[in-house]
Model the fold of this input.
Amino acid sequence: MFNLLLFSKRLLRKAINLPLLLLSLFIVIFSLKSNASHFRYGNISWTRSNTTPTQVTFKVSQAWRSTFYFASASAPTVGSVINGGTLNFGDGGTATINLVITSVNVADDWFYGEFTVTRNFASSTTDYTANFSSSARVGTLQNNANGAFTVSSVVKGSVLASPTATVSPIANMPIGQTYATMNLPATDANGLALTYSLTPAGSFGAGSVQPATAANFFINSSTGVLSFNTAGKTIGQLFNTSITVTNAAGATTMVDYIIKIVDNQPPPTFTYGTGNTPNNG
Done:
């Protein structure tokens, strides 16, 4: 009898706890779904102080989905500040990325912002790798959908600055081309030669891969011209890529962004009239 009562109490306890467990599971799943699909773009660059070589100033650039951070009734505005995660300096120190919004793309539901911070390292000749990482890439990507991301930059000892690279968070490439191309603009404050490369798989997020094999997706190492075989793709498809730019001294910057496949129609042409032509006949 005692065992029967004990068994009945256990069943009752499980029956009571089951809704709580289901509710907790729902909250976890909903949270994961809500946190998905918000990272659009990332980049880190840096400069070293001329007067105090151990001091390095970092610039973090990010783009995120607007409706992840803001309700539709309170769209992001230029000057707003959001938490963009944690910047790891590479020496054990960290800083919260207080991202200041500098531009908003309402049509495509994303905003872009920047954050700067100065770190006083123990050595001016030691190499450090700064980075930020998290999860939840765009859920509609053809590669790395909802995946983790890592953006890094190598602070090379005795080098005055990293390369800097500029690209739109979502860059368009035309459909139906064997070699659709785009240029990745980059400069180096040191005047050093730059080398461009696809960031290796797994290095820009756990399980991350480039959009296609080397035969169909590659970058010119000296010019920064990216080529993508877009034949057979669909208009509106999104692909994630990460490009690493390295100067001759070994300092790097990584650019993580999205490629969007767009229509390949030629631009419209216009015929300009010259007005009424006198009839001389």
About this structure: The first strand starts at residue 39 and ends at 48. Residues 1-9, 18-36, 269-281 have pLDDT under 50 and may be disordered.
